[in-house]
Amino acid sequence: MASDTKVELRNQIIYSVYVRNHSEEGTFKGVEKDLDRIKDLGTDILWLLPIHPIGKKNKKGDLGCPYSIKDYKGINPEYGDLDDFRSLVEAVHQKGMKVIIDVVYNHTSHDSKLLEEHPEWFYRTKDGETGNKVGDWYDIIDLDYDNKELWDYQIDALKYWVKEGVDGFRCDVASLLPLDFWQRARKEVAQVKEDVIWLAESVEPDFIRALRREGFIALSDSQTYDAFDATYDYDVFQYFKKYKEGKISLGQYLEKVRSQEYIYPDNYVKMRYIENHDQPRATTWFPSEEELINWTAFYYFQQGLTLIYAGQEAQDDNTPSLFDRDLVDWSGESEEYLQLLKKLGEIKRDEIVAKGYYELLDLEVEGVAVASYRLKNERRYGIFNLESKVGQLALPIVDGSYTNLINGEEIEVVGGKLSLNNSPIIISVKVEDGKEEIFLEEM
């Protein structure tokens, strides 16, 4: 898709909000009051989890799941009305941010407006009943995209929200819908508004294989990039989980991440995260402060769009329920961690992050991740001690004193090596015109 949009997204930050659980009010107004703080984190894009009315039939929990949608053009009355939504969108724009909303087009609630009006547009099981392809999603029923009239309806809804000021869409399980649908949707929406952001929730490899075995659509990430600007990091996330479970080494996980650099388009954008609304909180994966800080810096530094899931900045250890009132706990905010996020956000703004050639280096140093950007005569290195290793690390740069862009400390490289500590390191190296770094024999 449009390379300019992808380049822009590579150094932006997206902040994800579940309106119901974000504030005491649980409304659009509650989110609007918090925009200054959200903006101060370096946020470029505010992503609202589904804002539509929630189905009541077969609902999960006391209040139902926001991904069980009753009306694609409606507003969940819990959150306010359409004027409240418009007010939030305007306020977001006034702060210099963009707003995207969740698009949940694979399925609806059992009591959706669409089922009432067009039952012929729904997937049917072998016994002719409505149902879904994924067994544990009992609160929803799948749509059938063999019906081209459904395409018209769904694209019309996208145009409706763009006209209401929405700047883009996060598309739920986008891999389960036909690629032709997404390509047509993007083309037609662009006629209403240019530079709309398209973020696909791509799915894990095991999920793709399971769906394909049953004869269902399951797009790979490579296919998805034909219609979307950015995709989820789920292609490697299952390997991250295996690493945290002790089933594979960090090096094996990093090799999976490294493979993204040659299997996707050269301007690919992944949404990088250490937590999201479907996964445990970051403090679950990283119980120590040093580990959390290093992994946070690593995922900010990687090529892609950086996600903050509301409450992450407060190190909330409770993953809020999607189905009930379960407020984010803001009491654990640490000034040190907040300042880290802000500083990493500033570093991400640099041109080299958006336009530079990114590489996750293979230095064969277990427990440490090293990545780099190259642009013109600048090299940017990130060193992340993910397993609190002690010792020295060889780097492909000349000896000298370099400033850690994160905290201002001086980093000495002597004999082609620097001493590791428990802090992440990001340094900038200037290269004379026509010359390259010295690649040391130790490498």
Structure commentary:
There is one protein chain. The chain is of the alpha/beta class. It has 2 domains: 347 residues, Glycosidases (TIM Barrel, Alpha-Beta Barrel), CATH 3.20.20; 71 residues, Immunoglobulin-like (Sandwich), CATH 2.60.40. Helix content is 32%, strand content 18%. Strands 1-2-3-6-7-8-9-10 form an 8-stranded parallel barrel. Strands 11-12-13-18 form a 4-stranded antiparallel β-sheet. Helix 7 packs parallel to helix 8, helix 11 runs antiparallel to helix 12 and helix 14 packs parallel to helix 15. The two termini are 37 Å apart.
Keywords:
32% helix; 4-stranded antiparallel sheet; disordered C terminus; 443 residues; Immunoglobulin-like; TIM Barrel; alpha/beta
Summarize the model shown:
The chain has 16 helices and 18 strands. The protein is an alpha/beta fold.
- Mean pLDDT equals 93
Q: What portion of residues is helical? A: 25-40%
Computed structural class: alpha/beta
Assign the CATH superfamily of the largest domain: Glycosidases
Sheet having the most strands: 8 strands, parallel, barrel
CATH architecture of the largest domain: Alpha-Beta Barrel
Distinct helical segment count: 16
Hey, roughly how much beta strand do the residues contain?
A: 15-25%
CATH class of the largest domain: Alpha Beta
CATH topology of the largest domain: TIM Barrel
Based on DSSP secondary structure assignment, what is the total number of beta strands? 18
Shape summary: globular
**Rg for CA atoms:** 23 Å
N-to-C CA distance: 37 Å
- Please give the domain count: 2
